[in-house]
Q: What sequence folds into this?
């Protein structure tokens, strides 16, 4: 577990360094677990539209999840990164769709793909705690996005990370949006409403 006394930037750096050391076996295990649990979570929460990120670098591989959701009949969406401080826009993705390089060179659907509002959103993270707080990459895109979506409708936020990225208590501020569920290679953590 990551030291709880660290400030956000130091905790982020430590968590990402730990993530970089994850074995290929553990990485494959969580990618499979995510693909297995993803459609089930979406069904349990009555989601029709499910969004996930396109993994890059050492992030947990999300392509198996995306394909499993598409095969299960969900409308699947990927984020389009815009200006900092603005919510992410989500465009529909189907297996076999052409992707283009977006901001920060992250693959995303073409501009002609329909815009969708997710009911359930898989969220990347650098670190998390059992109260549902997360440390992201520092740009605030998911906090702004979750706040915007939650102002319009109920949405379930599922954090995706390795057990090694857990921190006893994430330092957080009023603008930080909580996760509802966290999935690691070891467990599914459902955050109590009063946490």
A:
């Amino acid at each position: 577990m990551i030291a709880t006394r660290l400030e956000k930037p130091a905790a982020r750096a430590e968590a990402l360094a730990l993530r970089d050391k994850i074995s290929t076996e553990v990485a494959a295990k969580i990618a499979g677990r995510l693909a297995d649990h993803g459609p089930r979570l979406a069904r349990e929460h009555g989601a029709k539209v499910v969004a996930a990120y396109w993994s890059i670098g050492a992030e947990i591989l999300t392509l198996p999840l995306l394909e499993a959701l598409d095969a299960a009949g969900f409308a699947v969406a990927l984020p389009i990164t815009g200006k900092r401080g603005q919510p992410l826009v989500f465009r529909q993705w189907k297996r076999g769709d052409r992707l283009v390089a977006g901001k920060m060179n992250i693959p995303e659907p073409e501009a002609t793909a329909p815009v969708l509002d997710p009911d359930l959103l898989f969220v990347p993270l650098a670190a998390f705690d059992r109260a549902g707080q997360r440390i992201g990459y520092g740009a605030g895109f998911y906090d702004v996005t979750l706040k915007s979506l939650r102002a319009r409708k109920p949405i379930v936020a599922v954090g995706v990370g390795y057990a090694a990225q857990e921190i006893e208590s994430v330092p957080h501020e009023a603008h930080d949006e909580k996760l509802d569920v966290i999935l690691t290679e070891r467990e599914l953590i459902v955050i109590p409403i009063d946490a």
Observations:
- The domain at 8-190 is CATH 3.40.50.10420 (Rossmann fold).
- The CA atoms of residues 41 and 104 lie 29 Å apart.
- The first helix runs from residue 8 to 20.
- The chain is about 30% helix and 20% strand.
